[in-house]
Each structure stands twice: as structure tokens, then as C-alpha cells.
Design brief:
By secondary structure, the protein is mainly beta. The protein has one helix and six strands, in the order E-E-E-H-E-E-E. Helices cover 9% and strands 32% of the residues.
């Protein structure tokens, strides 16, 4: 996947375009959503400036996005998966609990 990563705390000059591995689905609650674009909001700018991220750089910023569900595990009784999704999460690649539609 292509993403803009924060390489260090600082201003916009610390952002770089990077190719990253596709996120793995590791539980029955994970889905992978293909985001054609993600929103950057004030919290992303504050995180970039302060360096308050989970883990160490490089880190992918972006709390908001909409897209299409690309992969979801099928488990007995899980019900169908909605094809479109809207997400608000802490970092990407991200693991976000998703309630399946029934």
C-alpha cells in the first residue's frame, strides 16, 4: 500500500511517500479497507508536531477515511460484511474493532 509516513516529529517536511506491506488480518474482528484517500485533521498535525505516536517512526498519520472493504475473515455466525466502510482510528495500518452488519 502507498501511504504518507511521518519520519520524525516536526513540520510538514518530515512527511514522505512510502510503499508499505498490506496490513494482515489477525483476528475475526479485523477488516482491511482500501482507502482511495484519507482525511488529515488537526489531531494529525498535533501528533506530527509533538511526536506522540504509538511505537517509533516511521508512522502513518490519518484518523479519518472512507473506502471499500477489501478483505474480511469469514467465520461461522459472523454474518455478511458491508462493502463500504467509514473509519476513524488511531493509526494505520490499523486494527479497528468493527461490528459486522447482520
Amino acid at each position: 500500500m502507498r501511504a504518507v509516513v511521518m519520519t520524525a516529529p516536526g513540520g510538514p517536511d518530515v512527511l514522505r511517500l512510502a510503499d508499505l506491506p498490506e496490513p494482515e488480518l489477525t483476528s475475526d474482528h479485523d477488516v482491511r479497507v482500501r482507502l482511495p484517500a484519507a482525511g488529515i485533521n488537526p489531531v494529525d498535525c498535533k501528533i506530527r508536531a509533538s511526536g506522540l505516536i504509538r511505537g517509533t517512526p516511521p508512522a502513518v498519520l490519518g484518523w479519518d477515511g472512507t473506502g471499500t472493504v477489501e478483505a474480511a475473515p469469514q467465520s461461522p455466525g459472523s454474518g455478511p460484511v458491508t462493502r463500504s466502510a467509514c473509519a476513524m482510528a488511531a493509526s494505520a495500518p490499523r486494527r479497528v474493532p468493527v461490528r459486522r452488519s447482520r
